[in-house]
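S1.2 Input.
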Amino acid sequence: MERWGQLKETQPLAAQMLMNSYKRDRMAHAYLFYGHRGTGKREAARLLAKTLFCPNVIDTEPCQECRECRRIDSGNHPDLHWVKPDGASIKKEQILTLQKEFTYTGLESDRKVYVIEAADLMTVNASNRLLKFLEEPSRETTAILLTENSEAIIQTIRSRCQQLAFQPLNQEKMKHFLMEQGISTSNASILSALTNNGEEALEMLEGDWFANARKLVIQLTEVLQSKPNEALLFVNHQWMPHFSDRDTLQRGLDVLMLWFKDMLHEHLGREEAVVFIQEKEKRERAMMRFSRTQVTACMARIMEAKRHIHQNVHPTLVMEQLTLQLQRC
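S1.3 Output.
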């Protein structure tokens, strides 16, 4: 994300507030960006740092080409300090080191910026040390705290920051975001229906997990159509080895639910809502087996199976029961 205009497409309120503050020369000395993973907090922090350091800003937009912008992109800007958890937490020593760095004059100018990622993971001592740092702000110092859980940050720190909420992406914006990352339209359609978390969607694409999950969902419905007596064998020998724990099984059931939702959309004449956009022929064959009423019944069974997984019922038993129920739909 290189432009404020891009950020405004996904986070219009947060982007506009930051742009207005810069234009009016009313930047806060400390910001707290909070929201789910994948909502652009880290990218917004980097963009704000560029805007503050870039000598060629035009109407809030950094040039992206100067030495300052390039060094921020490479992580080598001497006056931008990025603090991340050391292990499971951000420790007091990390904040002390940060404070020591800020006692020196900026190498390039008087401006200094620091970003604390996962700020909710600061220890009590680290939080208290940061609070003292925030209580004596320098006009040329900007703090940016990033968190998924603002309530876990002590109130005295929150009260000294301008808080900006980063909202989850809606499905269409999520699809557009994924396609900008080079994801195919077909995969972006399904992933945007599964999650509004950009990072989570990209993580699902790592390796072959998502491609295999997508294939197994369709194969299961094909077995139920043409070889129902082999469905349990398929579940035990192919489905369960891939969806081997509760979390991945929940995700697999989510994908299965989307497949049945697509059949329902087709039955209702809402083809524009379909997310498995490449599998039209397979979907039409499946619809010869599953009527609109049967599709609705199957979706109810899938939701019931998800509840059972959440209640810690053994995953294999849940999936075997669901398979038998889908056979009878």
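S1.4 Remarks. The two ends are 47 Å apart (CA to CA).
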